[in-house]
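Subject: for your reference before the review

Hello V.,

The reviewers asked for a structural picture of the protein, and I figured it would be easier to keep everything in one thread rather than splitting it across files. Below is the amino acid sequence we used in the manuscript, unchanged from the supplementary table.
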Amino acid sequence: MKTTAAVLAEIGRPLEVVELDLAPPREGEVLVRLLASGICHSDLSLIDGAWPVPLPMVLGHEGAGVIEAVGPGVAGSRLGERVVLTFTPPCGRCRFCLAGRVNLCTEAAAGFETGLLRDGTTRLSRGGERVYHLALVSSFARHAVVPANAAIRVPAELDPTLSCLLGCGVLTGVMAVTALAGVRPADSVAVFGCGGVGLSAIQGARLVSAQPIVAVDPIPAKRELALRLGATHAVDPLAGDPAGAIRELLPGGADYVFEAIGKPAVAAQAFAATATGGVTVLIGQPPVGVKAAFPVYDLTQFEHTILGTHIGGANPTLDIPRLAALLAAGKLDLTSLVTHRFRLHDINEAIAVVASGQAGRVVVDLADGY
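And here is what came back from the structure prediction:
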């Protein structure tokens, strides 16, 4: 079949919205008609070459849609399911899956690095030449063929321009707080960076009744949005030392501090804002090879913990439906989180908005037209 997709053909160049050939699903795969896709900062890292991947490639990894065809071995009853896609479907065989850390699945990680599906091939091509998949998903497209367990059923009544965010940004932010860090009621929290992931972390902190919740961001509109979504205080890092400002609000520092930007200098500020015996969680992902430094004395003397996280330590198969239930019940506010919507043919304008740093979450609406 033919489909339309946004292809990264060359590092640093705009995406090309073109028609591609899409082969039907094979064993254990499904065809999804995509209705919406979020744009994550990770997509920008691929465009500018900070994360090397094989090219040409269809980008996008936050997708929501409906299953329209199934391959051999997949139950026909799945036809018509509304789904959210995950780029970490567990293989169930590697040591990480067997240990319950499915977010680190070796097979899923290989899919990101190679741009291939599980059988070592692609379903996408153009003029007979191979086009690669991003992380088994490639959601900047009208259709995608993905592993069946990468398509996770969600309630049909959910708006796909909101539910698509459950595949990465919202999942990462909420689960970094609630699952990985294990924040408890009345624990104090600070979040550095109020983009889509940071704002989701703030909502996660609100969901578990953290108190207080401090949002740190240089953009006034983002600080205001953070306050609407659950933050109790907001700090402008351009007005002075943000760690000092947090320590004025919380003598001794915050119990849990989340860095959601991916900049070593901000990670150091987050560390400095963390209380004795507290936890600094690094969510933001910098370019490959970037290093950060922390005072080892403080780590040891004050039993300070630094955690890295991949999608918040989530198990997408279990946690995406849980977050979908919270969204359906009005416990997660993703309507406020989405500040911009675009069509597929405007994908480069949408990417520019994400790169500006001024947006909350940017979504590509794929339901009708291009």
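For the response letter, the relevant points are probably these. The chain has two domains: 2-153+337-365, 170-310. The radius of gyration is 20 Å.

Happy to draft the paragraph if you're swamped.

O.
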